[in-house]
Amino acid sequence: MTGIVQVGPLWRIASARMPTKWGMFDAVGFERDVCEAAGKLAAKPARALQDSKRPFYEQIKAAMEAENQKFSARVRSDEAREAVGAFLEKYHLPAEAVR
Predict the structure, then answer these.
(1) Number of other residues whose CB lies within 10 A of the CB of residue 14
(2) Which of 4, 41, 51, 97 is the most exposed place for a label (fewest CB within 10 A)?
(3) What is the mean pLDDT of residues 54-73?
(4) Using CA atoms, how far apart are residues 82 and 88, in angstroms rounded to an integer?
(5) Residue 96 CA to chain centroid, in angstroms?
(6) Is residue 26 part of a domain?
(7) How far is Cα 95 from Cα 97, in angstroms, rounded to an integer?
(8) Are residues 66 and 60 in contact, defined by beta-carbon separation less than 8 angstroms?
(9) pLDDT in tens, 67-96
(10) Residues 95 and 56 grouped into a single domain
(11) pLDDT given at position 73
């Protein structure tokens, strides 16, 4: 009776660092899945990939703008002014040094 012997791990982990508009992105997955996905992506026209990413990037941009508006409102609140004032008093920094 003959059998097949697998040498090494069955599921090897693949990882990659990819540059994006927002900095470096770490991707991790099973090597077999990564290779299959890479082959499928390579077979598609570049324009199709760009078009498929556009809604994702628009969603991220909208979320970032909404978060920026919330943050701006909170920074300008009386509570934020009070917290910054307390910090300056505690560390004896003149207000002019912060501006």
Answers:
(1) 14
(2) 4
(3) 90
(4) 10
(5) 36
(6) yes
(7) 5
(8) no
(9) 999 999 998 999 988 888 888 888 776 666
(10) yes
(11) 92
Residues 68 and 90 in one domain: yes
Token pair belonging to 29? 């997955």
Residues composing the chain: 99
Task: Please give the Cα distance from 56 to 62 (Å, whole number).
Answer: 10
Q: Residue 57 is encoded by which pair of tokens? A: 């990037």
The pTM of this model reads 0.41
Whether residues 56 and 98 fall in one domain: yes
Within this chain, do residues 52 and 98 fall inside the same structural domain, yes or no? Answer: yes
Task: Please give the pLDDT value at position 1.
Answer: 47
Three-point CA angle 14, 26, 31, nearest 5°: 15
- CB hemisphere CA count around 7 (13 angstroms): 0
Owner of token pair 């979320």:
63
Question: Residue 65 has which token pair?
Answer: 């703008």
For the chain, the straight-line distance linking the first and the last C-alpha, in angstroms and rounded, comes to 81
